[in-house]
Write a structure and sequence with these properties.
globular, mainly alpha, 295 residues, 11 helices, single chain, 0% strand, 63% helix, Fumarate Reductase Cytochrome B subunit
Length: 295
């Protein structure tokens, strides 16, 4: 029961805190509107120009394509396009971690589906007479193996890269080392816990116990793994790793927001609201000193 409680609590907090972060992003004042072109949603300006280059642009319809914008966002979210274009040697390690996480998300969903299927009398195995059981089995095996391997290696090598790369370690904070170590610990205990059974029958059985709140004898390793994953899920949305929430706002409402500021428009009102905004917190840093501070 305790492990089930930890699992459900961590998932609820992960979703709840993520939604709250999105709410905070949405309520932030308007950005500086320093647009970077090309903007994917604009039709006909793939060369890098802008609708505003047109003669008398204000008298012409501003044609946009949200489909193209969505395609660009998918490229960034699924393939980390910007990192690939600007720091390709670093991209391979970072993408291994991200791709491993995507596989593990799919694996978790498949474990739940497989557990529910087993509870309803469907055999999920390599010799299952059911096409559904075979499909869930092989998809679970593939996503589980790739997810655990790529995620663990990615987190480990990212940590080492930041520690030993002379440039990166200058900009790496203790929190970033902690983030990668937490990810590595959760993933590596997953490898130790489930790696001995690559059919993942044990993982599916534990999942069935968890979703039915059925007590079961758990080894110390299983308990440690569930606790670490729970801590990780709660911590991620509260840390800088919550960039998965900010992706939409970063691209859609900052980099690609070039809606014209016309008289009486919503943009004009946003600018007026932003001009009256006053920060409620102060900012300082070790290298910044007050005017009267002793030297």
């Amino acid at each position: 029961m305790l492990l089930s409680f930890i699992a459900y609590l961590s998932i609820l907090l992960f979703v709840g805190i993520s939604v709250f972060k999105a709410y905070q992003f949405a309520k932030m004042p308007m950005h500086g509107r320093m647009e970077l072109y090309p903007v994917p949603k604009e039709k006909g300006f793939e060369h890098g120009g802008s609708f505003y280059e047109e003669v008398s642009w204000w008298s012409k319809p501003h044609e946009i394509s949200h489909v193209r914008e969505l395609v660009e966002m998918v490229k960034e979210i699924l393939f980390i396009k910007t990192l690939f274009e600007n720091q390709r040697p670093f991209w391979w390690i970072s993408y291994a971690l991200h791709l491993g996480i995507y596989f593990l998300m799919a694996w978790t969903i498949l474990l739940v589906i497989g557990a529910v299927s087993v509870l309803n009398g469907i055999i999920v195995a390599a010799n299952s007479p059911s096409i559904w059981g075979l499909l869930i089995y092989y998809l679970s095996v593939a996503t589980g193996i790739f997810g655990l391997a790529l995620g663990t290696l990615g987190a480990g090598f990212l940590f080492l890269r930041r520690m030993f790369d002379n440039t990166l370690k200058k900009y790496t904070t203790p929190q970033e080392y902690f983030n990668l170590l937490l990810l590595f610990a959760a993933l590596f205990t997953g490898v130790l816990t489930w790696g001995g059974d690559l059919s993942f029958d044990n993982a599916r059985a534990v999942t069935a116990y968890l979703i039915t709140f059925t007590p079961f004898p758990a080894s110390g390793l299983v308990t440690l793994h569930v606790i670490l994953v729970g801590i990780m899920l709660i911590y991620i949305p509260m840390s800088k790793m919550s960039h998965y929430v900010g992706k939409y706002f970063t691209f859609h409402t900052v980099l690609w927001d070039n809606t014209p500021n016309l008289r009486g428009s919503a943009v004009e009102q946003k600018i007026k609201d932003a001009s009256s905004f006053r920060p409620t917190t102060s900012w300082s840093a070790p290298h910044i000193k007050a005017p009267n501070a002793p030297k």
